[in-house]
């Protein structure tokens, strides 16, 4: 992929890539920048500058010489080789997501196999952010309820599962309040809207024993959703409560199902 002459990266794209690669908290050290520049045959023209500016100046100088973005791709391939991140795969995926948000504007994606792959060119920043995140790609494919996405879109763009979970459960309470004008919350709101011999909201015709049983099951499901996911996130510090990507996807799917049943309730 790097052997093919690639379009140069513009100033903003190159600056973003260099800031990601040379980030003070998790990026390359100064000595690593020096090593990988040398390994890719790029002259380190400004070694005393701050890390990202040092890298930027070296890459932009080489780009101007060659009128191609190959030097940038070569540096990424060397410095982000998968073997460097053994035992730190979650961090590696997050790093690739940020890198790929920029690369998508060039129709490229650097994947965990350590190779660049041709993909459809992104036309907007939102599109690039969504496509770069595998979680958001899965969520898009599942066609989750728009009411849920309205509540937690910002958190998903930041891969902030902790607060996305909280916002997802808030979306359920919000829809119930819109349909009933009730002001309670959590399990109390679920009971107020869906419980009793003649519920305010019914997910079916509520005539047969089977339908009444389904209604009760839905009440338990919705209350369980609040108890399992909302209460821990609302009362625990983020550092004390973690959620995997797989659990987040399952939660959003379950919350979307609950929202669809609420939306269709009468």
Automatic annotation (TrEMBL):
Domain spans labelled Conserved hypothetical protein CHP02391: 142-262
Domain of life the protein comes from: Bacteria
Matches recorded under NCBIfam families: hypoth_ymh
Name of the protein in its database record: TIGR02391 family protein
Organism of derivation: Paenibacillus chartarius
Taxonomic lineage from the root: Bacteria, Bacillati, Bacillota, Bacilli, Bacillales
């Amino acid at each position: 992929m790097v052997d093919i002459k690639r379009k140069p990266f513009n100033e903003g794209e190159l600056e973003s890539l260099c800031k990601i690669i040379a980030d003070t908290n998790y990026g390359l050290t100064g000595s690593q920048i020096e090593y990988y520049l040398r390994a890719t045959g790029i002259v380190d023209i400004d070694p005393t500058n701050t890390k990202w500016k040092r890298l930027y100046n070296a890459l932009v100088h080489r780009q101007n010489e060659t009128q191609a973005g190959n030097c940038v791709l070569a540096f990424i391939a060397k410095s982000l080789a998968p073997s460097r991140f053994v035992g730190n795969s979650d961090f590696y995926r997050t790093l690739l997501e940020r890198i790929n948000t920029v690369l998508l504007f060039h129709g490229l994606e650097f994947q965990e196999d350590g190779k660049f792959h041709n993909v459809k060119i992104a036309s907007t920043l939102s599109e690039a952010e969504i496509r770069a995140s595998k979680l958001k790609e899965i969520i898009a494919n599942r066609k989750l309820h728009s009411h849920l996405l309205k509540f937690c879109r910002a958190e998903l763009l930041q891969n902030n599962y902790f607060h996305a979970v909280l916002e997802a459960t808030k979306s359920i309470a919000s829809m119930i309040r819109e349909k009933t004008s009730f002001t309670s919350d959590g399990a109390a709101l679920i009971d107020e809207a869906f419980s009793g011999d003649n519920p305010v909201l019914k997910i079916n015709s509520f005539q047969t024993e089977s339908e009444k049983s389904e209604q009760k099951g839905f009440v338990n499901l919705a209350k369980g959703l609040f108890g399992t996911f909302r209460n821990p996130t609302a009362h625990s510090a983020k550092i004390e409560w973690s959620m995997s990507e797989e659990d987040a996807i399952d939660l959003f799917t379950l919350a979307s199902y609950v929202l669809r049943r609420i939306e269709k309730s009468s």
